[in-house]
Amino acid sequence: MTVSPLIGRNYLKLHEDEKVPIVVLDYKKMYACWLPGLRHTLYFEMEPNTEELKRIREIVLLEIYSADSKYIVELMPEDLEQFETAYSLFSTYGGEIYFYMKKEGRRMKKYFDFKPKKVSGTPVRKYLAADFV
Fold this sequence. Notes:
Blueprint: E1 20-35, E2 40-44, E3 54-66, E4 69-75, H1 77-93, E5 96-104, E6 107-115
Antiparallel strand pairs: 1-2, 1-3, 1-5, 3-4, 5-6
């Protein structure tokens, strides 16, 4: 059982419907557990077998870079499907992935939006190096 050392954790906290462009650095499946004594969430690569930990759940831990810093986003299995769709479109066509949160009931639900690159309407002109001399 190995613990992921996430020193200096930075969780991305957004207002409702605030869209932020992100760059995905890494993502991996982990187990998240709440440790009441420390009042922190701990992340494990394998499922822990201890009674001290509460709310053991399987998540995908997403490390992203946005605007000025590295952040961590916890994705539940239902959020992962939408992220994989946006990420596959991004890796195929390029462009940007936007992350935003929307309130549904009592919880804030995570969403990912893909925007393709803007293609200019003018064709690229070819020049010879001899034309500039």
